[in-house]
């Protein structure tokens, strides 16, 4: 009896990938490829580079899937950690190369949307709205350090220098922002474990 | 209670850097210190996990965009390439290595969760290294063998060329010998024919032989016969054993009357030193004292004898 890959949880797919099952990887890509690409596109504001990053991320899953351990956290957390790391590496590389910073965060949202199914769009909009609302609840200074670090790729030391705040203050704001986000989104986070 | 902002953050604080770790906001040094902490502290790992789950939710603040189909195709093409490479590397490792080492046995197992990527890379490296090593060695051997073969063929060609040159030289000698023998044979045939003719002349009553010539010191072996036809002015001079004239010279037959030579014919002898010369008598043979053969220049004055006398009729 053929296995319906769409019904399998992420970890089963990951085990199949580790056994060399390309269809399982394709299924995982279909499941998360758009989100990974969207994250890269948000940060890089460059569809071509974002596609390269997306490909690299899933190639890493194919080649290094065995390095994932459920004890370290959710699969998606691991996956988006890889995606964010890879994207930030690319952003910092470009920054070094071009000695310039990207535009404001709002500008990154100007990438033209591709065709997305209504259901996917609804889900995405729903998730987007929840996170956006949670971010909106953060104090401005906490939201700022999150945006500068996560989306602009600045280190905490660079944020301290840019904002004129002590490094300790930046660290504290990061810590508080993440705790509040987690609390605000706890139902979403636990639901996807 | 301590004010967090009053803490000295120039002192390494990996615990305080965990949020920055989750947001990818650390320098490499800071990140290394956190990694060291995570190695030894389950509490730190648990704390980090919570931060990272919160950070993951930030990904949903991204625009609703999709990658092109090209990404999926390229990804799967790369995966197919990996699979093929792994299969090839596994086959190559099996075929190249005579025995399976423990490491190889591990690597050659069906791909498992923990080893798939690493196994492919290691097998590739091992197999490619071995293949290249064996292939390189084989090619080197072939190159050496080919060089030896070429040198051997060059030597054989040189020997063959020498043999051909020797054969050609021998053929040239043989050709010359054949030519000489052909000429001698022709001369002998002529001589035989002349001898038969001379026999015919001496036995034929239509002819008479008034002169027999003998060689002088310059041609001691030479001899000749002058025959004339009765009641006619036709004469024939047969000579044999007379050395060929040097280049630029010819022989001249003269009849002498009152001590004055009267040239009647010039001639060359063949390879056998023989010649037959037919000529018209300028006067009745009885009017002449003797016959003489001299060696004269080709372009000399045939009316005046200047060369040495090589033959003359005996008195």
Features:
heterodimer; A: about 190 residues; mainly alpha; Rna Polymerase Sigma Factor, Chain: A; Arc Repressor Mutant, subunit A; about 75% helix; about 0% strand; globular; B: about 325 residues; alpha+beta; Immunoglobulin-like; 3 domains; eight-stranded antiparallel beta sheet; 6 helices
How would you describe what is shown here?
The complex is a heterodimer of chains A (193) and B (315). By secondary structure, chain A is mainly alpha-helical. Chain A folds into two domains: 108 residues, Orthogonal Bundle (Rna Polymerase Sigma Factor, Chain: A), CATH 1.10.1740; 78 residues, Winged helix-like DNA-binding domain superfamily/Winged helix DNA-binding domain (Arc Repressor Mutant, subunit A, Orthogonal Bundle), CATH 1.10.10.10. Helix content of chain A is 74%, strand content 0%. About 9% of the residues of chain A have low confidence. About 2% of the residues of chain B have low confidence. Chain B is α+β, with helices and mostly antiparallel strands. Chain B has three domains: 57 residues, no CATH class; 113 residues; 107 residues, Immunoglobulin-like (Sandwich), CATH 2.60.40. The longest helix of chain B has 88 residues. Chain B contains six helices and eight strands. In chain B, strand 1 and strand 2 form a beta hairpin. In chain B, helix 4 crosses helix 6. Chain B has an eight-stranded antiparallel sheet, covered by helices on one side. At the A-B interface, helix 2, helix 3, helix 4, helix 6 and helix 7 of A face helix 1, helix 3, helix 4 and helix 6 of B.
